[in-house]
Amino acid sequence: MTAFGDFKPLCTNTPSYTWCNLFYNQLQRLNNADSLLQGVSKDAASASVGVNPVCGIPRVGHEGSLGNIADLVACLLSMLVMGGIIFVTERRKAAVGRIEIRNFFICYFLTLPLQIITTGSFLEQGSTALVVLTAVHAGLVAALFWMLLANALIATQVLEDGTMSSLMPYFIFTVAFFVVTTYISLDVGLGFTSTLGPSSDPSTLHNIPLFIFTSIWPAVAALLYFVLMTYIVVGVLKETRPLVYYALAAFLFVLSQLAWFMLGKVICEGTSKRVDGSFIATILETASVVVLFFSWRTITVEDWDEDQAYYQNYKY
C-alpha cells in the first residue's frame, strides 16, 4: 500500500520525474541495491530518470537516444520568453509589486536550465553532480512557490511594496525555503544524516519532508495565491477582466501537472522512449506564468502619473 511520502509510484509511472535522481543515488549506497534497481535502472551509465520506470528516455548516447530533446527545446524557448517578460516587467517602474514579481520571474527562469540538466538524461544516474543539481533545483522550486504566494500577500497592500518592511520578510523566507529544501534534498541523495536517510523499507522511496516541500507545498501555495488574488480582484478592485486571466493561469497550471503525471508514460511508450510528456508540461507551465504577467499588468499601472490616478480610484 502506498503511504504519504512514498515516491515509488511517481518514480515508476512518471517519466522524467526530477526528484527520483535523489533516490537513485540513495539506493546505490545500500547493500541490496541490485535487487532494488532493476530493468532500465540497473545500468547507471544508460539509466533514464526514475527508479525502475515503466518507460524512460535513455541517457544520451545509449540506444540512439538524444536525451529529453523535446523538453530541452521547450525549456530554451521558455527561457527566451521569460527573458522578454523580465525585461518588460523591469520597465514598469510604478507598478505595485514590481520588484517582487520580477524576482518570481527570474526564479522561474533559473529553474529552466536546471530542468534541462536534471530531467534531460544527460548526466549519469547516481552521480554526485546530478544529485547536487537536483537538490538546487528542488530548492529553487520551493522558493519559487513562496515567491508566488508572497506576491499575492503583497498585492493586499498590508505592507507597502518595495519597502524594507515588505522586502525583508520576502527575501528571508525565500532564502529559508531554498536552504531547507536544498539541504533535505542533499541529505536524501548523499546521506549526510540518518534522520533523512532511507526508510525502513527503501523500496518505497519514502521521505515525508521531501514530499512536502516538492509536492504538497507547491500545490498549497498555488491554491492560496489564486484564492487571495480572486479576493483582491473581485472583492477589493471590483473588476472581472483580471479574474479571467487568473482563472486561465490556474487552468494552464493544472493542465501542465496533468500532462506531466498522466500523459508522460503514454507519450513515452508511443514514441518508443524518444520523448515524454515533460515538454508539454513545460510549455503549459510557461504559458501559465506568462498569463500571470498579463494578470498582474491589468491590475497595476506603468508610470507615476497613472499611479496617482489609480490610488484615487482604488484605496485598499
UniProtKB/TrEMBL annotation:
GO terms for molecular function: unfolded protein binding. One of its GO terms (biological process) is protein folding. Keywords: Membrane, Transmembrane, Transmembrane helix. InterPro entries: Chs7. The chain crosses the membrane at residues 69-89, 101-123, 129-155, 167-186, 206-231, 243-263, 275-294. One of its GO terms (cellular component) is endoplasmic reticulum membrane. This is Uncharacterized protein. The lineage of its organism: Eukaryota, Fungi, Dikarya, Basidiomycota, Agaricomycotina.
